[in-house]
Model the fold of this input.
Amino acid sequence: MGRHTRRATVTRLLLAPALAAGVAVGLTSAPAQAAVWSSCEQWGNTTLNGYTLYNNIWGSGAGSQCVSADSGTKWQVRADHPNTGGIKSYPNSKKVIGKPVDSLSSLKSSYNVTVPSAGDYNSSYDIWDTDYDYEIMLWVNHHGNVGPLGTPQGTVTRGGHTWNVYKGSNGHNEVFSFLRTSDSSAGTVDILPILKWIKNTKGWMGNETIGDVQFGYEISGSAGGLDFRTNSLTVSGS
Done:
């Protein structure tokens, strides 16, 4: 559905300083709540209790967006992006792992979110190797006019969930998308069996070193302003 013209991949991950054409930022105030950090800047970011938070407004035609955080694992976003198609932003919280798949004995995450009943978005993990050659997306819920990149690869049950799997490329890196077969607002994902299925069962990648494990919201449209809340998040790997 055209969503993965999404990647000026390394650019958005490395927080390129230049403003993307057509992006209007800083047009609203940060969400009104007690917070230790907030930002309405396009590339606003900070590190809190071992997690790095990004406002991350990266897509063309974006509107305004602000993130407000009590911690790296409890934060909210107010986004007002036009419903014009194409990913506008991926506000997220990131934990860096830094271990090859075969060296990991565990990689798990728990999430609890409150998402709107309107808009075009997904709530997803975005997992990268350190070279940014491979991207593994785990959609735990989605709403509206959004869809994964690539072609269907069937359904698999791994990591405590059942997923519809898609495989493709955005021109910068390979993308493996796992869409939960039913929406969830809270749960635990055992990520390592999913990575091993990609590596060992399918042979789609080698013994890559896993770098970023991000969790956030890919937002295509949220006209009028919508709230996305991460009530709690944990990422742990060893």
